[in-house]
Design goal:
By secondary structure, the chain is α/β, with parallel strands linked by helices. The chain has a domain at 223-333. It has helices at residues 11-19, 39-47, 63-73, 93-103, 167-172, 189-200, 223-241, 244-267, 271-286, 288-302, 307-310, 319-333; strands spanning 2-4, 28-32, 53-57, 79-84, 87-89, 107-116, 119-125, 128-130, 136-138, 153-154, 162-166, 203-214. The radius of gyration is 19 Å and the shape is globular. The relative contact order is 0.13.
Length: 337
């Protein structure tokens, strides 16, 4: 499954590399989210007649979650891969992922080694992890690849840039029929899904023998949308997935910290970002009833394992890590509104 939004400059090579994949029979579902940069015209011109590719055009930008939910409706396979448009894949990438998925009924999803598209010697991601407040940490990001992560291991979540999952695992963890929460326009979709998988008793595994090259953030977006959707989805993810005891323990510190982050923007007179983050907090208050209904599905229909087990791949909260979030805010504050 390849979701495209304004991926000109990437989509041709992305599709070519996927079609060069070794050995396995596969289908490619290419979904375009109303691109305006000509990338969909490139895909149609070069690949519309290819029997392995199905092209689906949306009339509007549905975002990552809804766009991929739609793509899944057209897929036929027992193993599903969600792949970003700004990627290129090694020839054996798919076989390595599927072999690991087949190796154990407990493995629900896997992630390849993601290397930088424009610098193959640097790591993009070797797996995602949360701390107890739900802040995400990408293992190895930006490091030189010295094969220091070339061992398979369990991770908390697989990066949505290249996430392979069993269809049976999807069917056991659907949220109102959807694989990704449709209220998540962007950010936290992959980690929210993987948290549900872990609650169901599945393991998420990093597969270093599968390699995908990723540009990251190639699709154009608005920094204000990042602030809004990331904060909104972050809070909602905790509300849905934590057991009641852990939710009470961690949701109030999270809300406090996010409010302080918003006030930092206000101090810097970045009113757009301040209101984006405050709107994210208010969205969760306004939509709490709706989110709570999803939580009931997760807690009573999906959950099979306690928080103690699902949190084994989480990191403890460290002040130095919280400080890093404030430093990242400084970089965002100098971006566009």
């Amino acid at each position: 499954m390849i979701l495209n939004y304004n991926g000109a400059g990437f989509i041709e090579r992305c599709l070519e590399s996927v079609l060069e994949t070794d050995s396995l029979f596969f289908e490619v579902i290419f979904v375009d989210n109303a691109s305006t940069d000509g990338s969909v015209d490139t895909a149609k011109e070069l690949f519309e007649e290819n029997p392995y590719i199905r092209i689906i055009l949306n009339d509007e930008n549905l975002g990552f979650a809804k766009g991929n939910n739609l793509a899944l409706e057209h897929a036929k396979g027992d193993y599903i891969v969600f792949l970003n448009n700004d990627t290129e894949v090694a020839k054996n990438w798919l076989k390595e992922l599927v072999d690991v998925l087949k190796s154990s009924p407990r493995i629900g999803a896997v992630q390849p080694k993601l290397l930088k598209l424009h610098d193959h010697k640097r790591i993009d991601s070797t797996g995602g992890f949360f701390d107890f407040l739900g802040y995400a940490y990408v293992r190895g990001e930006g490091e030189l690849d010295k094969r220091q992560y070339d061992h398979s291991r369990e991770i908390f979540y697989a990066d949505g840039a290249s996430l392979a999952i069993k269809r049976s695992a999807i069917d056991e963890t659907r949220l109102n029929g959807a694989v990704f929460d449709p209220d998540y326009f962007a950010y936290y979709e992959d980690s929210d899904l993987c948290w549900r998988l872990r609650l169901r008793g599945y393991r998420i595994v990093f597969v270093p023998t599968s390699v995908v090259y990723h540009a990251r953030s190639a699709s154009k977006g608005l920094p204000l949308k990042l602030a809004f959707h990331s904060t909104k989805n972050h809070i909602a993810t905790l509300i849905k997935n934590y057991g009641l005891g852990k939710l009470v323990k961690y949701i109030f510190p999270l809300l406090t910290f996010e409010s302080v982050r918003a006030l930092v923007f206000l101090k810097w007179r970045r009113l757009g970002h301040f209101w984006a983050m405050m709107r994210a907090i208010l969205w969760n208050l306004k939509n709490l009833k709706k989110t709570w209904k999803k939580r009931q599905i997760v807690q009573y229909l999906i959950r099979k394992t306690p928080d103690a087990l699902t949190m084994e791949q989480m990191n403890k909260i460290r002040l130095i890590d919280l400080y890093s979030h404030f430093k990242s805010l400084h970089n965002v504050s100098h971006g566009e509104n």
